[in-house]
Each structure stands twice: as structure tokens, then as C-alpha cells.
Amino acid sequence: MKKFFLFLMVIGFCFAGEISHHNHHIKHCDLSVKEQLMDNPSKEVMDLMHLPMMCEKWIESGNAEIDFLENMIPHHQGAILSSKVLLKYSQNPKVIEFATAIIQSQEKEITHFKLVLKDLKKTKTKNYKQFAKKAKQDMHLMEEAMQKVKESGDVNKDFIASMIPHHQGAIIASRQILEWSKNPEIIQIAKAIIQDQEKEIQAFKEFLENPKE
């Protein structure tokens, strides 16, 4: 846990707000101020991938389906934010294609998530604490995997290398909700995330093995 909060301090997320040890919630996040602390393209792209997740309260509603969608929204927002910043720096056609596809698909998914949330019944999930504990553990594992990605000085490689564990986090969360939900719409959303992001991860790995301008 100490390592996690040290990480937040190093990347400059902590200075503007107050952190809740239970929710990792940072109040008063100011993107324009955060961007001023990022002194190179790779750092900006990699750090902004974390920002929405760090700035939004981790949801524990008592309902697994609500938690899944509510916590997936800032996860997607991080991918979108990082992708939009990447487009300011990249001249690599393939990476531009990746980033553009992430923005388009995940903005559409967020809109869908919000519509689904309006209709979800707020019934308590049986054995909810078990679900919530595993979801939070998986979140920490994703954060640790992303921390292990070191800046190479190549913004394209750093964006892709960071996006792999970020996508893997969404896949793990989606697989978890499939074990709990019987809602056809939630199941469809989770399966689509798994299918789409596994395909993207494979493309990312192929790019890292053979990057082409």
C-alpha cells in the first residue's frame, strides 16, 4: 500500500487534493495543473492514463453490476485521455490508428454504460463483499503492472506498452462480472470488452515486436 501511495506522489497526483485510503479518491483534480508537471511526452501519455481512475471515487455500491460499469467509466476515460494526448506527439500511422480507435470505441462505450446504469436495479448482490474484495485486488494488480512500464523515450512504444496492462485490467474486470451477473446487457458488454481488447493487445504486442513508422 505504501508503494502505491508513493507512486501517486511521484507522478504529482497528490499535491492538489486529499486521498482516501479506502477509495484512492483525489479531490479537486485539475488536469491543466497536472499537465504542467509532466515534462516529456512519454510521461504525459503514461501518467494521464491513470488520472481519471485516481481522481474518481472507487465505487462500492453493494451491487456488482453497478460497480462494474461505474468503475469501468474512469478506466475508459484514462485510455481516451492518454490517446488524445498521444495524438499531439505521434507521427506513427499505426499508433495514430490505435489511439483513434480507442477514443472512438471507448467514448461510445461510456455513453452506453451511462444509459445502462440508468435502468439497472439497485438490488444488493449476494456475497457482495467477496466480489468487491476481488475487484479491488484486481485494480491494484493492474496499477502495479502499469507501474512496471518504464519510460523508453519513445512516446509510441511507451503508450502501447502502458496500454497493454491497462487493457488487461478491463479484461480481468469483465471476466469477473461474467461470474456474477445474469443481466444479458451486462454480459454482452463484458464479452465485447474481452473480445475487443484481447484483439487490441495482440496488435499492440505485434507492434512492439516490429514497430514501423
From TrEMBL:
- State the coiled-coil residue ranges: 103-152
Q: Which InterPro entries match?
A: DUF305_CopM-like (IPR005183), Ferritin-like (IPR012347)
The answer to whether UniProt assigns keyword Cytoplasm to this entry is: no
Keyword Coiled coil assigned: yes
| Alphabetical list of Pfam families matching this protein | DUF305
Its keywords, alphabetically, are: Coiled coil
Q: Which residues form the DUF305 domain?
A: 65-208
* PANTHER family (alphabetical): SLL0788 PROTEIN
| Protein name as it appears in the record | DUF305 domain-containing protein
Species name? Helicobacter anseris
